[in-house]
UniProtKB/TrEMBL annotation:
<feature type="domain" description="SH3b">
    <location>
        <begin position="7"/>
        <end position="69"/>
    </location>
</feature>
<dbReference type="Pfam" id="PF01520">
    <property type="entry name" value="Amidase_3"/>
</dbReference>
<protein>
    <recommendedName>
        <fullName>SH3b domain-containing protein</fullName>
    </recommendedName>
</protein>
<dbReference type="GO" id="GO:0009253">
    <property type="term" value="P:peptidoglycan catabolic process"/>
</dbReference>
<keyword id="KW-0961">Cell wall biogenesis/degradation</keyword>
<dbReference type="InterPro" id="IPR017293">
    <property type="entry name" value="N-acetylmuramoyl-L-ala_amidase"/>
</dbReference>
<dbReference type="GO" id="GO:0071555">
    <property type="term" value="P:cell wall organization"/>
</dbReference>
<feature type="domain" description="SH3b">
    <location>
        <begin position="83"/>
        <end position="145"/>
    </location>
</feature>
<keyword id="KW-0378">Hydrolase</keyword>
<dbReference type="InterPro" id="IPR050695">
    <property type="entry name" value="N-acetylmuramoyl_amidase_3"/>
</dbReference>
<dbReference type="Pfam" id="PF08239">
    <property type="entry name" value="SH3_3"/>
</dbReference>
<dbReference type="InterPro" id="IPR002508">
    <property type="entry name" value="MurNAc-LAA_cat"/>
</dbReference>
<dbReference type="GO" id="GO:0008745">
    <property type="term" value="F:N-acetylmuramoyl-L-alanine amidase activity"/>
</dbReference>
<dbReference type="InterPro" id="IPR003646">
    <property type="entry name" value="SH3-like_bac-type"/>
</dbReference>
<dbReference type="GO" id="GO:0030288">
    <property type="term" value="C:outer membrane-bounded periplasmic space"/>
</dbReference>
């Protein structure tokens, strides 16, 4: 591997730094990185720094980077000289091109297959494939020979989860500062979460799967007509104060408070948005629900910074990971 002299590493100084496709504030946000992540910068231009972002070229505002004293070859994500191996513990496991269910499938692995770990990100492990190249596998579908890294040892096999994408049809929910509707964002997110939960072994029922109007009573009765273990409602917040930001998880019945806490804790760790904690919420779908029920407000679409994150595939993937892990933590107790 040759590393050019100009390449150097920096730490991220902002709590959440948006990665854009071009060195231009108007260009698309392709993802984001969290505080103290180390990035390798290959070029600087007019206040922007060019970085490698999951194999893609991305640009970040260089004012939020601080120099580290390492050279690129010492970056922790490169040259992982690890003998650590993982064993696949399920059949038909998808190997993906990146660390999340939104990435394309590049192959399959079966129970007992062994791979060397190249890298790790969140709940996902990057492994060296036998035919050359690498791929990513969800951490809960593998077990590790050393120190139980990654952590995911459980699955959601046997659990049924009702996913409720808020609003729909003639009920748009909140309107984002750029005109986007909450109902559109909630269904996109519900689909990402559903896919992740199914990969973790859960049975997933959705209260709506397209842009249709479903009454609150019917949403709850979906929950009542299946032997579901949890009801998870997905919403986004809005405020006239544009700087208001963050994620809150609500519960109504005391018996749902623990589930709300386990999911909120993972959202706080994995999404990069501030945590506004767990709160009591007197919402119809919680109050009348026969199951353990929570409602997530996954950021403020009135806040331009929250909205830029919310619209990325990485955010959906991170929330999907957080909800899956939160449910595993809760049911694993
Ligand atoms: Zn809503």
């Amino acid at each position: 591997m040759s590393v050019s002299a100009e390449e150097s590493t920096y730490g991220v100084g902002a709590s959440t730094l948006i990665v854009r496709s071009q060195p231009d504030i108007q260009s698309n946000a392709i993802g984001y990185i969290k505080r103290n992540t180390v990035v390798t910068v290959s070029e600087k231009r007019f206040g922007w720094a060019k970085i490698d972002y999951n194999g893609q070229t991305g640009w970040v505002a260089s004012q939020f980077l601080y120099p580290t004293n390492k050279t690129a070859t010492e970056s922790p994500t490169q040259n992982v000289q690890s003998d650590q191996k993982v064993t696949v513990n399920a059949s038909g496991v998808r190997i993906r091109k990146g660390p999340g269910v939104n990435y394309a499938i590049r192959g399959f692995a079966n129970s007992g297959d062994v791979f060397s770990i190249v890298n790790q990100q969140g709940q996902w492990v990057q492994v060296r494939l036998n035919g050359g190249g690498t791929g990513w596998i969800a951490g809960w579908l593998v077990s590790s020979s050393a120190n139980n890294q990654p952590t995911g040892q459980q699955s959601l096999k046997g659990y049924s989860i009702v996913l409720d994408a808020g609003h729909g049809g003639f009920d748009p929910g909140a309107t984002a500062y750029n005109g986007l509707y909450e109902k559109t964002l909630t269904i996109q997110m519900a689909q990402a979460v559903a896919e992740q939960l199914r990969e973790a072994g859960a049975t997933v029922v959705m209260t709506r799967s397209d842009d249709s109007y479903v009454t609150l009573a019917n949403r709850v009765s979906v929950s009542g007509s299946y032997p579901a273990d949890a009801f998870v409602s997905i919403h986004y917040n809005a405020s006239p104060i544009l700087s208001t930001s963050g994620i809150t998880t609500y519960y109504y019945d005391d018996s749902s408070q623990g589930l709300a806490q386990d999911i909120q804790q993972e959202l706080a760790q994995q999404t990069g948005l501030p945590s506004d904690g767990v709160r009591f919420g007197d919402y119809y779908v919680l109050r009348n629900n026969p199951e353990k029920a929570i409602l997530m407000e996954l950021g403020f679409i009135s806040n331009p910074n929250d909205l830029a994150l919310i619209q990325t595939a990485q955010y959906r993937s991170n929330v999907a990971n957080a909800v899956t892990q939160g449910l595993m933590n809760y049911f694993g107790k």
